[in-house]
Amino acid sequence: MAIINIYLHSEGKTEEAFNFYKSVFGGEFCTFLRYSDMPDQSGFGEVSESEKAKIMHVALPIGNGNTLMGADTPEFMRHEIKPGNNFSISISTDSREETERIFNGLSTDGKVTMPLAKTFWSEYFGMCSDKFGILWMVNFDGK
Description:
By secondary structure, this protein is an alpha+beta fold. 17% of the residues lie in helices and 36% in strands. The chain contains two helices and eight strands; from the N terminus they run βαββββαβββ. It has helices at residues 14-25, 96-107; strands at 3-10, 31-34, 55-62, 66-72, 87-92, 111-117, 124-129, 135-140. An eight-stranded mixed β-sheet has the order 2-3-4-1-5-8-7-6, covered by helices on one side. A hairpin with a 3-residue loop joins β3 (55-62) and β4 (66-72). The protein is globular and about 35 Å long.
């Protein structure tokens, strides 16, 4: 069964925001990666030197089974970030098949921004917006 979490997008304020959320909700980050942590030839895209210190992915568990996630959106992926499009819905799936079914359904009549593929952080990952303009991230970590 898929698990849904909110994924916040920022243009350079993710670290500040997540330290604030951590102070409010408590707990510890279960993931905290900068773009400089990416291996060479990651297949993710080109991140400029000025963006390497920014946050590639952060995850803060909140409550029982919920995780608030976020990233600073790199220039090559950037859209105008404003209230209403500064988040994605992140779905973690149980299998490649479920990942494909959900991703293909959501992207029908929408726009694929990152096709499903193996990444250095995941067995199968893709991003799209649906026909209503909602941003989605679909992930199977291989576990």
